[in-house]
Amino acid sequence: MSSSRNETPVHSDTPSDEADPSVDDSPKEECGVFGVWAPGEDVAKLTYYGLYALQHRGQEAAGIAVSDGRRMVVFKDLGLVSQVFDEQTLSSLRGHLAVGHCRYSTTGSTTWENAQPVFRTTATGSGLALGHNGNLVNTAELREEVGKLQDKGRDSGVQATTDSDLVAELLAATAADTGVEEAAMRLLPRVRGAFSFVFADENTLYAARDPHGVRPLVLGRLERGWVVASETAALDIVGASMVREVEPGELLAIDADGMRSSRFAAPEPKGCVFEYVYLARPDTSISGRSVHAARVEIGRRLAQEAPVEADLVIPVPESGTPAAIGYAQGSGIPYGQGLVKNAYVGRTFIQPSQTIRQLGIRLKLNPLRDVIRGKRLVVVDDSIVRGNTQRALVRMLREAGALEVHVRIASPPVRWPCFYGIDFASRAELVASGLDTEGVRRSIGADTLAYVSVDNMVAASEQPRSRLCCACFDGEYPIPLPEEARLGKHLLEAPALDAAGAASGDPGPLRENARDTPAPLSVGYGAAEALNRP
């Protein structure tokens, strides 16, 4: 028999910082997943430290599910990993396997119900906990499947509104008859989009990655068990040795009988290139390539593509630092630290007053005036999304005495929303979608502006372009998208689909390839809040 323990949603009435103009408009990460099967180990603490290493991938909520072989206990809440868990909580989570998750929402709002791992009980009384990194594109279809189950009398009573929740519901409904492993093998071929799932019942840990391998997922070995995680950095922090990546289209099962591998789909690799640019930790490796080394190489190539006469190269910390080092190496211009980042300003439930809010970017970055004064600066950042951060930054550097500000961006212009797990603004809010480079330069007030090319970004990853998804830069979506009415972050919170499966209003044409009809691609996962963002 399984049980789920959930804390009171103590922060649920607090406004999200999505509407807070003091928060920057950098691309938001997606989620981090972690799983461990290790009898005799303190799996809750291993998971806590694993999630701590993955905190950059999601700061809205965190949770851990632990099983001792008889029952499963879930503890989750809104907040950072260190806010959700304390020593007492972790010591109460005892067992031999665990599933952990840190969340940034890409489907469904920031509510306690939507925190993960998702928990379900099957008809036979066993438990199922699931964590998901990525985003699905056939969420509307999966909701219709769940609706049919409800018509047959199955009602989980859960109020969550995420694509992950639908997958857990469908798994639990099928597992009662077939077992979880077989249920997954039947369901996963019908799930379309980006997903790295880590899930478990009372005895077995599972991991699955979509056929395109859009989001990373790796397998590690402990002395007395196994670990799966979104990034290799999480393996390092718990002392696990890297075994290999979970393959696209692969389902792993780990229990007392060992590790089993099954294929539910043929692999068609399309890893997210933005993981190299921004999302992953610099101390992570993806497909054997050091993320830090890739970012330094992007900077070197950017210096060759877009040289400028200047006195100092400075990064926008921390994500711009490796590329700034590379730009300095490639250009011969000295590298320096011109901006200091307040490491303790993140997503907060304490809203700043209007006076403090007007400080904007200064809450996170402050200039070193003696370094900047009288200098011609090259400022290296990882990306421009809406442009407001860079606009405020250029103004701040000029006020601090910079003679010239030349902005260099370590990714191409972001012109298209992501439907596979990154929360950009809508296409209408992406500054590079409506302006050319000169227009963006004027908008942010820089003396010059240049981006790295797609070709040089891809070359720095050391992956063939055919194995990478560059959709946010080139509009070529590797996983076909449904009509616009069946997309969006708040799809499951909108009015229910009618019997024909269409939402109210004109659903628009079905797009097999975004390049053919670019204009209708207006929604993105941040579209609903985009106008309220900085």
Automatic annotation (TrEMBL):
CDD domains per UniProt: GPATase_N, PRTases_typeI
PROSITE patterns: GATASE_TYPE_2 (PS51278)
Active-site residue list: C31
The Glutamine amidotransferase type-2 domain, residue ranges: 31-257
Cofactor or coenzyme needed: Mg(2+); [4Fe-4S] cluster
InterPro entries (alphabetical): GATase_2_dom, Ntn_hydrolases_N, PRTase-like, PRTase_dom, PurF, PurF_N
Signal peptide location: none
GO molecular function: 4 iron, 4 sulfur cluster binding; amidophosphoribosyltransferase activity; magnesium ion binding
Biological processes annotated in GO: 'de novo' IMP biosynthetic process; purine nucleobase biosynthetic process
Listed name of the protein: Amidophosphoribosyltransferase
